[in-house]
């Protein structure tokens, strides 16, 4: 069986693989609250499985998963591990630099945690400055939300943090990790004192959104909200659609010239 993880290969095998011009998948996520019933590693677990499915079908290799991210707004929930933004930026830059120096030049970050976007963007700006290589980034949860619109009667009520699409995906991919006895629907936070919340980190005033920098614990005691309607069947449909997308993208991205300045 062909090895798809860099960490499972010897260094001569890695050196040989460079000749095949593979896309290198770098799954990253977070370790934080994902509601009462989902595991704290939900983000990186989903990113890793998506990378595995993509690598099996397309010409790709997988970098070891980075399970930590910038999770400051979740820090009051036990189990949350957060990196400082500057730490995360430097780690991501070092990972990319190491892979490029090895000879790989098609890097695809599979980042499944929104607050990681800014540190990742800064790191990849520096990678282009240092090596002339541009890198791509994909957000699995956005893919899942887009591919789940026809699976729920009222998507806006269920596609929320700690609810969907994670619950359905995890019921399909890691059913043994779900605490079904703790599943509890929770209304989306809509008010904070005398302001409406949009969705939970902006105050709504005279038709405009004003960002406010809250902790999730300020508006949710269970670390997630929404109507719980997830199922393994819906997760299977979502994940198959996500897999089709990432494998198609990898095949096309392999022929993309990442040194676009030349």
Write structural notes for this entry:
- The structure is a single chain.
- Strands 2-1-3-4 form a four-stranded parallel β-sheet, covered by helices on one side. It has a four-stranded antiparallel β-sheet with strand order 5-6-7-8, with no helix packed on it.
- The protein is an alpha/beta fold.
- It has helices spanning 11-17, 42-57, 85-102, 117-131, 140-147, 155-158, 166-173, 232-253; strands at 23-28, 60-62, 107-111, 136-138, 191-192, 195-197, 202-205, 208-211.
- It has a domain at 6-153 and 237-253: Rossmann fold (3-Layer(aba) Sandwich), CATH 3.40.50.
Brief sketch in words of this structure:
The chain is α/β, with parallel strands linked by helices. It has a domain at 6-153 and 237-253: Creatininase (Rossmann fold, 3-Layer(aba) Sandwich), CATH 3.40.50.10310. 37% of the residues lie in helices and 11% in strands.
Order of helices and strands: HEHEHEHEHHHEEEEH
Mean of all residue-level pLDDT scores: 93
> What integer value in Å does the Rg equal?
19 Å
The CATH first-level class of the domain at 6-153 and 237-253 comes to Alpha Beta
Second-tier CATH architecture of the domain at 6-153 and 237-253: 3-Layer(aba) Sandwich
Supply the CATH superfamily name of the domain at 6-153 and 237-253: Creatininase
Assign the CATH topology of the domain at 6-153 and 237-253. Rossmann fold
What's the arrangement of strands in the largest beta sheet?
Answer: 2-1-3-4
Separation of the first and last Cα atoms:
37 Å
Strand tally = 8
Strand content: 5-15%
What general form does the structure show? globular
Number of helices: 8
Please summarize the sheet with the most strands. 4 strands, parallel
Helix content: 25-40%
- Class by SSE composition: alpha/beta
Stretches where pLDDT is under 50 for at least 5 consecutive residues are: none
């Amino acid at each position: 069986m062909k090895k798809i993880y860099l960490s499972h290969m010897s260094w001569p095998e890695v050196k040989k693989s460079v000749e095949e011009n593979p896309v290198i998948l770098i799954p990253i996520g977070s370790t934080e609250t994902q509601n009462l019933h989902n595991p704290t590693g939900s983000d990186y677990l989903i990113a890793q499985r998506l990378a595995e499915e993509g690598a099996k079908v397309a010409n790709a290799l997988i970098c070891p998963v980075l399970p930590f991210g910038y999770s400051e707004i979740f820090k009051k929930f036990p189990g949350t591990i957060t990196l400082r933004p500057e730490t995360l930026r430097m780690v991501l830059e070092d990972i990319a630099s190491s892979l490029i120096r090895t000879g790989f030049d098609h890097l695809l970050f599979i980042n499944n945690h929104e607050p990681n976007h800014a540190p990742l963007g800064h790191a990849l700006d520096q990678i282009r400055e240092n090596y002339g290589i541009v890198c791509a980034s994909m957000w699995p949860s956005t893919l899942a939300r887009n591919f789940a619109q026809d699976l729920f009667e009222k998507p806006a009520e269920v596609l929320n943090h700690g609810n969907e699409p994670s619950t359905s995906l995890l019921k399909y991919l890691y059913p043994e990790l779900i605490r079904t006895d703790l599943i509890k629907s929770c209304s989306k936070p809509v008010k904070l004192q005398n302001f409406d919340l949009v969705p939970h980190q902006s105050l709504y005033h005279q038709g405009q959104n004003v960002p406010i920098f809250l902790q999730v614990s300020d508006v949710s005691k269970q670390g997630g909200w929404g109507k719980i309607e997830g199922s393994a069947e819906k997760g299977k449909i979502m994940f198959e659609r996500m897999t089709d997308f990432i494998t198609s993208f990898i095949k096309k991205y392999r022929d993309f010239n990442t040194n676009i300045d030349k």
